Every structure is written in C-alpha cells, then in structure tokens.
C-alpha cells in the first residue's frame, strides 16, 4: 500500500483512537505487524497555543515509520500552522486530518462530522 510517496510495508494499519494510541500502544501494535501507525487525534488549537501536554501526544517510539499524526480543528489558518508544528515536532511521515469524528466534544466545537 502507498499513501502519496510513503510506502506502507503491511496491510495492517493502526487507526487513531482518542486516549488509546499513545507511543507505547503504537509500538506494541507495530511489533505485532501494524505497518502504519497514527497518533490519537490532536487539537490544532492546542498545538497553535503550544500546550505542553498536547506536545507529548506527538512523541514517537524509536524507529516509528511510517507514522502519521492526526490533527483536528475547524480554523484553516490554525490547521495549517498545527500541521507544520506537528510535522516538525514529531518527525511523522504523514499529517492526517480528522474529518469525521462524531464525539460530542469535537462536533460541538464545529471540528468533526
């Protein structure tokens, strides 16, 4: 499988899950065959405001490639800034934009589906 220029070496991909897909969980899944991992969804506003707790969500385990960071938000300028911040801070191969999360705290802010 391929996403843009990034080759995915396995048909197994780990979906982003809020409160679940931290670096340790992603590493376990990669060791069990996941060829592509994604962080839990990360607020673009929190990245733009340089929230320290949020930056910890960007941490990757050693050798985590190919990997993606998933961001969410509704402000185009903040999303663009957050994507750049996430890319630089994490070293991820892909920035994934969440466009379908039905969670109340996401949707109620105009950030989800």
Q: Strands, helices and their partners?
A:
Blueprint: E1 2-3, E2 6-7, H1 23-31, E3 37-38, E4 42-43, H2 44-48, H3 52-56, E5 67-72, H4 76-90, E6 94-97, H5 104-107
Parallel strand pairs: 3-5, 4-5, 5-6
Antiparallel strand pairs: 1-2
Structural description of this entry:
- With 113 residues, the chain is of the alpha/beta class.
- The protein has a single domain, classed as TIM Barrel, CATH 3.20.20.70.
- The chain contains five helices and six strands; from the N terminus they run E-E-H-E-E-H-H-E-H-E-H.
- The strands form two sheets. Strands 3, 4, 5 and 6 form a four-stranded parallel sheet that branches. Strands 1-2 form a two-stranded antiparallel sheet.
- The radius of gyration is 14 Å and the shape is globular.
- The two termini are 27 Å apart.
Summarize the structure.
The protein has 113 residues and is an alpha/beta fold. It has 5 helices and 6 strands.
Structural class per helix/strand content? alpha/beta
CATH architecture: Alpha-Beta Barrel
Reported for the largest beta sheet, the result is: 4 strands, parallel
CATH topology: TIM Barrel
Indicate how many domains the architecture comprises: 1
Question: Number of DSSP strands?
Answer: 6
Question: Which runs of at least 5 residues are low in confidence (pLDDT < 50)?
Answer: none
Q: How many helices in DSSP terms?
A: 5
Shape: globular
Helix content: 25-40%
Q: How are helices and strands ordered from N to C?
A: EEHEEHHEHEH
What fraction strand? 15-25%
Euclidean distance between termini CA atoms: 27 Å
User: What's the CATH class, please?
Assistant: Alpha Beta
In the CATH hierarchy, what is the superfamily? Aldolase class I
Q: Return the average pLDDT rounded to an integer.
A: 94
Report Rg: 14 Å
